[in-house]
Amino acid sequence: MRGYLLFLISFLVVCNVHGQGYSVKDFLYVSSFSPKKLESYLSKKKFLHGGSRFQNDIVINIYNLKPEKSKKKKDTLNIKRSIETFHTKNNSSFTYITSLKKEYTESLEELKEAGFFCGNEKDTINIFFQKKNISVLANRIVEQDDDTLYSLAINQQVLPLPGDIQFAEDLLLFYSHEYLVSFFGEKNVIKDVYYFSEKEVAKCSVLFPKTSRQAVFIWEDNLNLCKPAYLIIGGNMNAGTISNYDGIISENVWNSRDGIYSGMSLNSLMRLNGNSFKFYGKNSESPYMIVPEKTGAINFKTNRVVLGCLNPSGSRLLNNATIGADEIQSDNLGIYVYMMMILPGTDSKNK
Q1: Are residues 232 and 109 in the same domain?
Q2: Which label site among 52, 107, 260, 343 has the fewest CB atoms less than 10 Å from its CB?
Q3: What is the pLDDT of residues 48-87, one digit of tens each?
């Protein structure tokens, strides 16, 4: 089944050009082709290899449609069609480019009929479609000579192995809501709204809602629910369907790669860091959040940690703008890790 939808869309366009009909079996057959066999197949469809180019050390193969000869030169239209493909360990890409607007608009309708999710359908230049681990960027390109080209950049991401998802940061591999669904299943991922305050809200995705494996994805692209801005682990989940939940949710089991987990004591966190750190006072704009800096083994810039306190009136130090963990640890206030907000770092950025 790998690559089925990717090639289904691509070859719908290609096959429509030549007026031929294909069944689902044909698409399944084509989806298993190696790059070499794909080139042979495209050659039969009159797409000839026209060279290659490099993009970030990736070889992109270019195929151009062989122009058809016409006896009536006046009736010949300067129609441009080409295909660009590349394959890496983690994804496959197939881009169809045409100068015919009708082909482009019909392809957009086919995507909708195939059940692809689109959050920015009203965009007139870049339209983004998603279905599970397949994404399609529909783009209108205006060239220097004022000619307009239309492209469908289809990308299929390879799903990680279950063993690859061990730490909270590993969840940032999932670049979109649809990609989460493709790996964890529709029953385990829901769309929701996260309330930062009464006035500030954002669309989010919740993985394993109301369970000890619950994780909330806040998206940078709020329309298309993709590009993680950060991941929330633990704390009171201020999401619409969860905030009113009366049941008991067990302690969150996700650990960070550094070894941080919900409920971890202040002393244990200091030992893990190998040094003290500061956190904001209870009356600040970010109460109990550890100051985002690196003072030891833990980088609190990419792993924002918010602390909880069982006895907030037990020490005057909590009224200060910032408090040193080493200064307050002897007051026995029951300070612990309440929530983690994990940002994509240099080793966990999405592709």
Answers
A1: no
A2: 52
A3: 888 888 888 888 889 888 876 655 555 456 778 888 888 8
